[in-house]
Structures are given as structure tokens and as C-alpha cells.
## 1
Amino acid sequence: MLKSKKMKILIIGGNGTIGRRVKERLQTNHEIIVAGKNSGDLKFNLENSSSIRELFEKIGPLDAIIAVAGDAKWDRLENLTEDDYYTGIRSKLMGQVNLVRIGKDYLNHGGSITLTSGILADEPEIMTTSAAMINGAIHSFVKAVNLELETIRVNVVCSDVVEDSFEKYKNFFPGHRPVPMKKVTDAYVKCIEGTIRGEIIRIKA
């Protein structure tokens, strides 16, 4: 059985529900650095491109970047303001776009960036107009950006509601079955240790 080389991997949001499981899975074979807004080895602001650049300058060359972070406003259409939409645009969408736009210059040849979206891109529910829009935009970005990147790979993991947060969110996802965390972490491992590029990895139970 082939063993993957040891890589230096940055996980944005590595202490969150999905991020910490991804970190646990990868840290047995790789060097992991966790960054986030309020916790991690390094702190930074995902909504500020200067802060993102400063983060990469501190860390230096990387083999992979994983983003499992970003906020979006959940509410009924009639209640959502323009600023509510911009919450998700600045955070989850442009935050991840800027991680690619800036982070690509700090990746070693053959490196990868894995973004995170969610089931709402394909199966929106009530109160998810903003979140669904953001997730769909991330998918389009990943497919397009790979047409212009030759030495690195960009993919996105799109999961249904995960088992670790199912009790918290189950009322928002009627009829959905929680996805086992191992199935979710498998997707990130595939992106990091595999060779796929421009893929939207959709995960359901």
C-alpha cells in the first residue's frame, strides 16, 4: 500500500464541527496548522484580504490549504436585508475566494486547496436563500478557477448535514439523514492526498 508523503497543511476553521474531525484524521500523517478567527495556532480575519496575506506570510510555503469556515445569514426572504446577504458574501464566499487567490502563491508545486460548501447549493430549504446562493457560487468558482491554475488543484466538499451537528440543525433539514463524520473526512483526504481537481464532492448519507 502506497503511503502519502508528509505534507504541511493549513486548516482554516480546524476547531469547528467538521474542521476538528478533519484535523484529527490528517494529523497522524501530516503537519497540521490551524487558523481561525477566535482560536487555533494562528488567528486572522477571513473577511480581510490583508489579514489573509499576513497569515500566509507567517506560515510560509504549504502543501495544502483546507477551508472549513465562513458565515451566512439564515432567515426568511422577507426579513433578509442587503447587508444580510453581504454577511455571507464577505465571509464564506469571498473569504474562500481570497484564500485561493492569495494562497495559491504560497503553495508548493502540486499543492491543493479544498473549500467547503454544503447541500443547500443543490437542495435549499426555507430560510436558506442567502446560504444557498453562497454555496452555489462557490461551486461555480471552483469549476472555473481550475481552468486557469496549472500547478495546483482546487476542489470543494459539499456535504449534507453532518451527524455531529444533526441535533442542532435537524429542524432546518426535514427528511435529511445525517452524514457519518468518517464519510466527510474521507472526502477531504481524497482532495488532499489524491489527484482530483475542479471537483464538487457531494456527500449524502
## 2
Amino acid sequence: MTQLTRFIFVPAVIGALVGLAIIILNSTADNDRPGYANAVSRAAPAVVNIFSTKITQRSPLCRIPAYRALCEAFPGQQQLQNSLGSGVIVRADGYVLTNQHVVEGADEIIVMFANNQTTTAEVIGTDSHTDLAVIKVAATGLPVIAELGDEQPRVGDVALAIGNPFGLGHSVSQGIISAFSRTLITNSPYDDFIQTDAAISPGNSGGALVDHEGRLLGINTMIYSQSGGSEGIGFAIPANIALSVMEQIVQSGRVIRGWLGVNLRPQPMPGGPSGLLVIGVNPGGPAFTAGLRPGDHVLSINQVPANNLYRVTDVIANAKPGSQLNIEVMREQQRFLATAVAGELPDPS
């Protein structure tokens, strides 16, 4: 028994320990290896390339209904306008988030997956206020982008942009989160962008901005550039906003926002509380019916202080049409409470 233990059992134990040590060392080496390959391998399968085609008319006459049939009979009067972009698979049953400007007016949309397979897609709905669109492919069991969960990203965290720059196919660029809540970037009152210095180029629009673990930070949408190329200032729609818009489009075909019918501008009141100046009221709108007039100062809405225009805009937008908005107003040094019934934000088109 002693000889058996010495010549069989002991070497077996030593061999097992050596093998375990090698596995641990290899695992440690992989974890210590610099780079973000693991994050990319998690996120990239959920990022797609999008190629859209729009038929445009060469002659202005083709826009006139009486001449439309003639133009269709002679294809030479038509030309194809191609655009490219990216998208992010957000549901395994075929729903993909992208930018509205990537698919707007498209007559055909081709989606290419990370494995180079292609299929057509249809537009489910768009939201011009956030430049987001939801398209759907006829496929199931697709890889879905990981979500952040409760963890809050910070300025300085690593950010990876994955997309289809210049139609080259899946590409990754690395940077950091430069800032949050960038506003006044577009004409939309709902601007709330993540700023990043990860290189974003034409074709990246609609692609994913992910963190060091491959979780979705936002949907890449535009750059600030004087040269037309990436200059280290890119913008992404935060994931929580993009996913909320997606859910509404899937459920209702559109995004429903509350509407007050009032134009506000930040303007401090000398010696008084902070508020927003009413510079315009839509005739017949909810604010007009509630008694608001140009020159009033809004101090709060539903007890949310009106010391930030975009915070107040969110309160109004998130109000369900038909719900009550309690507005604290100051007019000529007199405070009063106005009650408005939220309407539905009209379609800008």
C-alpha cells in the first residue's frame, strides 16, 4: 500500500496541482493582458451595419402626381441615393436601434450582422426629437447588447465606439466619457448627450458606445467637427433614453410626450427666486388655457423647481397627456398657482 501511494497517488496529486497552477497562471495572464478585447467580443455581435437606399427623382416634374407615372415608366428619370450607418440589436426577436437619419425615407434597408450575413429590415417607427429609429429584421435568437443596470458611468470612464465607419465594416475606437448632459447641440429641446473622444466617423451613426465590459452606454449619433472628420468631440444618446424611446415605439409605433404649449427661457429675476421666463404661449394650448401669458415667470412645475430648462422640459415631456400640471407662477411680483391639463406634443412634421 505504501509503495502504491508513493509511485501512483503522489505523482497524480503533484500532476494535478501543476496543471491547476498552469490554468490559474494562464487565467491571470489573460486578465492582466491590456486592452478591451473581452468587452468588444461581448458587444460587437450585437452591432450591425446598415445600408439604406432611397429612390430620388432627377426632374422636379416627377414630384407632380400627373407626371409620376411617366417618370416611373422611364427609370432614367430616377436615381438611387445610398447611405450607410450602424445599429444595435436590443431584442433577440429582431428589433434594432439606430438613428433616424440613417433610415429616413429609405426604400430599402439592408442589415449586415457581425457574421457577414445580410437581410432586409423594415422601419417600425422613428422619433425626430431624439434622432432615433427602430427597425426590425425577420430573425430570432439574435445576440443582444448588454445593459448597464444600476451602475452609473462617470466622466473619465473608458468608452468604446463600435460601428461601420465609411462602410468599412465592424470597427472599434477607444476613448473616454468626456461629459454628460450636453445640451443645445441640436434644435431639439430634448438634447441630453454623452460626449466622448472615441473616434466617431460617418457610418458610425446608430452604433454602440459601450463601457469597459461591453455594456451599452449610448447610441452614437453625431460629431462636432470643423474639418468633417473626427476631432475628438462625439455625441451619443444615453442608453436609458434610447431604450425608453425604443420601448414606446415598439408598443405604440411612436413616442408620446406631454405638451404645455409654452416657450421658456432661463432668465433670473433680480432679487427674486430663480425661474423661467415665458416668452411665448401657443394660442389655445394648455398653458394658454391655464392663464399663462408672455412675461410671466414659471417658478416650478409639479413642485419641481424651474431652475433648469431641460429638467422642466423633461417634467412636461414625461407628463401623460390628460394629466394635471401644477404650475407656480410669478407675475408682477405676485405669485399664483395655475393648473394646466397636459396635451400631447404635436408631430413636428
## 3
Amino acid sequence: MEFDKIYNKGQAQLFKNQYLEFLTKTHPLVIWGMYLPILILLPYYSLRGLHFSGLSVFLLFIGGMFSWSLTEYLLHRFAFHYHAESERGKKIHYLLHGNHHEYPRDKKRLFMPAAPSLIISSAFFLLMYVFLRQNTFAFFPGFILGYLIYGSMHYAIHAWNPPFKWMKGLWRNHHLHHYKNDERGFGVSSTLWDHIFGTMFDLKKEKEDKEKVRELMFVRNPRKEKLEEH
């Protein structure tokens, strides 16, 4: 779904019910706090309860993080940017991801809210357990850490300029995805899979539009920005 305008202010209304609407918003620290016990307790259980070696836990954990990286790319490309034809499909797309492209400055919707996040992560855990069995207790926390890094990077890309020069390509890739072509630049925490699957922007040829970049970043000081507009 494409939008003619990026809204610099405001927030999409996803539900008429105020309680459902409230559940569509969250803060990164809420999600980090929710998953922190998993990041600590499951690897500990693997070591003490299942008697895995430290090396095995480490390798499974890293494997989980790498697995998330690919999952992030596939979900963003094929689920979040699915071209729905039915009205119901379009509404689902808007609910999942379309609202973010219309209102990129809405910092309360840069992380998936707690309730659907828990449901989806539980489904991933069960699916992994079918194939990995006890290895899941070390693999899954790495997968979740990968997700948390992805969400935090997404938040940072919309909030600040890149803190290091070597990260500028990651920022620009996502900015171009928003205002240039949403059929490219699907990687958020990494551009690895964009390079592998040929969806990476040619950053040497793409002219940087600083005004467009500014439109995608949420307002850190609304009072200052209001003064700049006058």
C-alpha cells in the first residue's frame, strides 16, 4: 500500500474501541522488560537443568540471533508488504505495517505491542521446539535478542542520526525504503539479506534528501520544531 503523503504529526486510529486502541501502543522498555527474564532464565536452564556446555549454549544462542535476522527480512518483505487485493486484506496490512508508513513519527508503534508480541513469540517457540527439542531453550533467547535489537534499531533510525559513520548506510537504506521505494530496503537491523537477495539500494547513486529524512524522524522537541516552522 502506498501513501501520497507522510504525516509528520498525529497518529493513525486503528480501532474505535479505546481499550483495543490502547493495546496497539507500547514503549521499547516495556518490551525489553517483558522478555528480559527469557534472555536470562532459558540459557541458565540450558546450562544447569539440561547440562549443556557453555559453548553449546553460546553457539545455539548466536544461531538464534542469526535466524532472527533472516526472519526479520522475510516477514518485512513478504508479510508486512504483502499486496492485498481484498478490503479485509488491506485493513489487515494497514493494521500490521501500513500505518507505520503513513505515520513514521508515531514512536508508540515502532515495537509490536505486548499482547500480540507474546502470542507470536509463543508460536515461534512451539514451532522451534518441534524441530529443535531441548536445544530450543538456548536457541530461542538468541532469536528474541535479535528481535529486541531489531526493534531498538528501528526506533533509533526514526529517532536519531546514525551515531557512527559506518552505520549511515543502514539508516539510509531504511529511509529510502520509506520515501523512495518500499519494494527495496527490507533489512532494518542489518542490510545482509538485502545484499543477498538483491533488494539493497545503490546508496552511491541515491541522492540523500535531508528534508525527507527529517520528515521520517519523530519530533524530539515539538516546541523547537514549531518555532522553526514560523
